[in-house]
Amino acid sequence: MTAAATERDALAGTVARVAADVPGVAFLRPGLVDLFRPAARTGPPRDAGRAPAGVRVSRASGAVPWEVDVQIVVRRDQRALSVARAVRDAVTAALSGAAPGAQVTVTVTNAV
Amino acid sequence: MAMNSGAELPGAGTGPGSGGADEHAEDERLACGRLLSEVWEAGEGGADDPHLRACPHCSAAVRQLDLLGAAVRGAADGGGREPQLDAGALTERVMDVVRLELRPGRPLPLGEREEDLWVREAMAAKALRAAAETVPGVRAGSCRIRPAESGGSPSRGPVRVRLEVVVPLTPGLRDLAEEVRRRVRGAADDALGLPVDHVDVHITDVAEPAGADPAWTDPAGTDPGTVGADEGNQP
Amino acid sequence: MPGDDGLLAVRAAEGDEDAFEALVRRHAPGLLRLAASMLGSPGEAEDAVQDAFVSAWRRLPEFRGQSAFATWMHRIVVNRCLNMLRSRRPVADLDSVPEPAAPDHAVSPARAAESHAAAVALGRSLSELSPEQRVCWVLRELEGQSYETIAETVGISPEAARGRVFRARRCLTEAMTAWR
User: What is the CA radius of gyration of chain C?
Assistant: First the structure.
């Protein structure tokens, strides 16, 4: 694994952990692996450190800021915009040291 | 209803396997001269034919069919409780597959123009339909949400909502549609944070109130499709 | 509520999986019974109905409500069952024919035993019908459908549907007479 890939995975792990802890987030948009687990419907993905679903971290080159894409499922009684903003702010703050100026995109895909 | 004779069937080219003509070749003429297929049809249709009741051959044939029906229904009833339980498990299995193949739809912009926050159309539509259904008696169907202005992809800026509803029969359809529109706008803001430019409410059907004559037809001759709340393009 | 079905189908077509779940919950019991009577096996019936619903979810965006959702779903299940019957090995293994459960509302034990045995005889002779005969007969006998509707569902002429139902009835009444 290259150093860049390692750095990217570390960032993605941080993003997943931080985003999942934001109040109002039910879980990150589950990927196939998560859905095949029993009780995937309501439970948060457990292996949050490993290639988390719902998080994509990329950048065109080492000279530009990272682009972070987070897909979340919110709780039904929460305002989508408020949760999305809280996720964006929490992720931006968590990355301020390792990835300053990261562009954070948040998409609310569903409510449960 | 007369049975066709084999001669009237052109080659029985009706699909794989034996065709109609072959089937009828197996018909049987009862001792009284009637065709078994005709007797069964008459018996099944509850035809009031004195011969059917009087003739021992015909009534025996009809009784055979009745016995068959009784055995079928007996078998069906006997297994009728277990499948109830299975239907619940089946629903879960079907939905497990469906959740792997969701159709979330296009991303729609949340919040201010410069924010990079989005909600998927299918989820937003669910919230807006639910808001419409807080008006008593209203049921929501199609809900399409599109960018109000053309431009970048995905497009920023407020959206346009087109909602179809079935409403109860009331004198004030226009007021009702207006109330639906108001609640949809409210939910777009309160539940989602989705800036909305325009809400079209289309009444696709008017449901008679519970207990009313189901054969009710619109006495005023108004076409429900033309009644609706459309706020035009003003902000 | 069939009218409600239409609304739910439109929502499901637009990606509302909750609406689809409501439809599945509503129609699964009836479709399971239908598939079980066509296939004679609860396990296979569950497979057929599950496949049919998944297929319906995928095809819903093209479903424009030309027919009622129930009719559309019914047709998908019937075709699924027909295909499963056709792919069975031509010679039915009689030992694998499941015994239908006995009805529990029979008047007397003797009567119950009689109808139970009749149901077993029926199950066996059903497995000897051709797939088309079996499906046409179930639609007529259990669903009470017209020959025109059966013909449309199975993709044959009404006259052929009528013939298949007749032939199935002959086979089945003969088998039951032999048993008696």
Answer: 18
Nearest to A80 among B99, B102, B110 (CB): B110
User: Which helix (H) or strand (E) segment is B145 a member of?
Assistant: strand B139-147
CB hemisphere CA count around A59 (13 angstroms): 20
Query: Structure pTM?
Result: 0.78
| Tokens linked to A66 | 């990272």
| A96 and chain B in contact, CB less than 8 A | no
Please tell me the distance from the alpha carbon of residue C92 to that of residue C88, in angstroms, as a whole number. Answer: 8
- Residue among B234, B228, B231, B207 at smallest CA distance from B164: B228
d(CA C3, CA B205): 10
HSE at residue C78, side-chain half, CA atoms within 13 A, is 24
Q: What is the DSSP letter of B29?
A: B
Q: Which long-range contacts (C-beta less than 8 Å, at least 24 apart) are formed by C159-162? A: C159/B4, C159/B9, C159/B14, C159/B20, C160/B12, C160/B14, C160/B15, C160/B19, C160/B20, C160/B23, C161/C136, C162/B3, C162/B20
Cβ distance A45 to A71 under 8 Å? no
Instruction: Indicate whether C97 belongs to any domain.
Output: no
pLDDT (0 to 100) of residue C148: 93
B72 interfaces chain A, CB cutoff of 8 Å: no
Nearest to A105 among B116, B122, B126 (CB): B116
Task: Indicate if the pLDDT at residue B221 is higher than 50.
Answer: no
Minimal C-alpha gap between C82 and chain B (Å): 12
Q: Mind listing the pLDDT tens digit for each residue in C82-126? A: 999 988 865 544 445 455 544 444 445 565 566 667 777 777 888
pLDDT digits (tens, 9 = 90+) for C133-161: 999 999 998 888 999 999 998 889 999 99
B9 falls within a domain: no
B206/B224 Cα distance (integer angstroms) = 7
As to burial, measured by CB atoms within 10 angstroms (0-12 exposed, 13-18 middle, 19+ buried), residue C4 is middle
Residues B55, B94 within the same domain: yes
Distance CA B196, CA B216 (A): 37
User: Smallest Cα–Cα separation from B23: which of C73, C45, C166, A33?
Assistant: C166
Report the CATH number at residue A59.
Answer: 3.30.70.1350
How many CA atoms, within 13 angstroms, populate the side-chain half-sphere of residue B230?
A: 10
Does the beta carbon of A111 lie under 8 angstroms from any beta carbon of chain B? yes
Give the domain CATH number at C140.
Answer: 1.10.10.10
Find the residue in A nearest to B112 (Cα): A81
User: Does this complex have an ipTM over 0.90?
Assistant: no
Q: Report chain B's mean pLDDT, rounded to a whole number.
A: 78
For residue range A10-38, list pLDDT tens digits in order. 899 999 999 999 999 999 986 544 444 44
Is B105 within 8 Å of C15 when comparing Cβ atoms?
Answer: yes
> For residue A74, what are the β-bridge partners?
A25, A111
What's the whole-number mean pLDDT along residues B171-179?
A: 92
Q: How far is B125 from chain C (nearest CA, A)?
A: 8
| Domain of residue C71, CATH code | 1.10.1740.10
A80:B192 CB<8 A: yes
